[in-house]
Design goal:
- By secondary structure, the chain is of the alpha+beta class.
- It has helices at residues 22-31, 46-49, 99-108, 149-154, 162-167, 178-188, 216-219, 238-249, and strands at 3-11, 36-42, 54-56, 59-67, 74-78, 112-116, 121-123, 128-130, 143-148, 194-198, 223-229, 252-256, 266-271, 274-277, 281-282, 289-305, 308-322, 326-334, 337-342, 345-347.
- The longest helix has 12 residues, at 238-249.
- 18% of the residues lie in helices and 37% in strands.
- The radius of gyration is 19 Å and the shape is globular.
- It folds into two domains: 3-256, TIM Barrel; 266-347, Immunoglobulins (Immunoglobulin-like).
- It contains eight helices and 20 strands.
- It binds zinc ion (2 copies).
- One zinc ion binds at residues 10, 12, 66, 200.
């Protein structure tokens, strides 16, 4: 049985435009009960060079970097190698490169890349102009951010509802964009592409208000990625590598834990004497593959094949057998609200 560890990804600090020190991020993550956080300051790995990566009591801090070219799509880079040659430290150059060149650079240096906020965003009234990713044929990225808290929240934001959105942020969370999910389902039919979550947390004080726009402690209770590991996330040197590998291989799921902590949610399959987990590719199945879904809470569980609902039920489990090839993944809803989105099991 795999072990479930939860964490938050895509977090900005004062190393770029987050205006919050890493020590405060750590404190908030510990208070929210997270097992790990992945920092992603813009175009810099400096927090890594400054020694923030590693264990802080029971919290594992992983320093990633958001390569954010000025006029192109953005990507999260994870690199578990030591920064011996300073190749990434202060990666200001990424600002002026194309996203394709950034991706090639990260991959050729042995890093892992995830496309973040892949559809981009345009909100002229709030001076937000983010370019969408466009090079979907490129097979250098390991995964994409399928659900981002800030980008979900901002989707229907207007000047007229700003106060309401500010007061009730979590009520605005609608789930991963259907257009993005369908793009992901399409990519999965060609190759394995992991789906991860992000917060895109930027700590901002607003003039004349007591409460900042999203405290990190509140954000850390919302959308998380749960990684599934074979061994304990012990305080070892391999911990960073195992969490990064689980992201890269899609051995993880994304959940809106504010509704209920999804720890223990499980989607696996077996065929013959082999068991397959999220992110696994299955080749040449013997007759049939049997899917099993288990939920720690009552939910509406949907098994999808190539993006279409294949089987669904209300409860804490779902079992289904199939002889068809396809990309199988699970969505779960709680009282009509989006809760869990798993990575697929690919039957080739
Ligand atoms: Zn970005
Ligand atoms: Zn960001």
């Amino acid at each position: 049985m795999l072990k479930d560890y939860k964490g938050a990804c895509h977090i900005h600090t004062e190393y770029s435009d987050g205006s919050i020190p890493v020590s405060d991020v750590i404190k908030s993550a510990q208070d929210a009960g997270l097992d790990f956080v992945i920092l992603s300051d813009h175009n810099t790995f400096l927090p890594k060079q400054d020694g923030w990566e590693g264990w802080h009591d029971d919290l594992l801090v992983i320093v990633g970097m958001e390569a954010s070219p000025r006029r192109d799509g953005h990507l999260l880079a994870l690199d578990t190698q030591p920064l011996t040659d300073n190749r990434y430290v202060n990666s200001e150059k990424y600002k002026y490169m194309t996203s394709k060149d950034c991706l090639d650079d990260v991959v050729s240096n042995g890093g892992t890349a995830f496309i973040v906020h892949p559809l981009g965003k345009r909100k002229i009234s709030f001076s937000i102009i983010l370019q969408a990713w466009h090079d979907w044929e490129h097979n250098g990225f390991a995964g994409i951010e399928i659900w981002s808290y800030m980008h979900d929240w901002i989707d229907d934001l207007k000047l007229s509802n700003l106060w309401h959105f500010y007061r009730n942020p979590n009520m605005q969370i609608k789930g991963p964009d259907p257009e993005l999910l369908s793009l992901w389902d399409g990519l999965g039919q060609k190759r394995r592409v992991a789906g991860i979550s992000g917060l895109d947390a930027h700590y901002r004080k607003i003039p004349f208000t007591k409460k900042p726009f999203f405290t990190y402690e509140e954000l850390f209770k919302t959308i998380r990625t749960h990684v599934l590991l074979e061994s304990d996330l012990a305080k070892s040197d391999e911990a960073i590598q195992s969490v990064c590998d689980a992201h890269k291989e899609g051995r993880c799921y994304v959940s809106f834990d504010l509704l209920a902590d999804a720890t223990g949610f499980n989607f696996f399959a077996y065929s013959g004497d082999r068991t397959y987990y999220m992110g696994d590719e299955v080749f040449n199945i013997e007759k049939k593959i049997h899917f099993r879904i288990k939920s720690p809470h009552l939910a509406k569980i949907k098994l999808l094949r190539n993006g279409k609902i294949y089987s669904e039920s209300e409860g804490t489990s779902l079992e289904f057998s199939s002889a068809e090839k396809g990309v199988y993944r699970v969505e779960a809803y709680m009282e009509g609200r989006p809760w869990v989105f798993t990575n697929p099991i690919y039957v080739r």
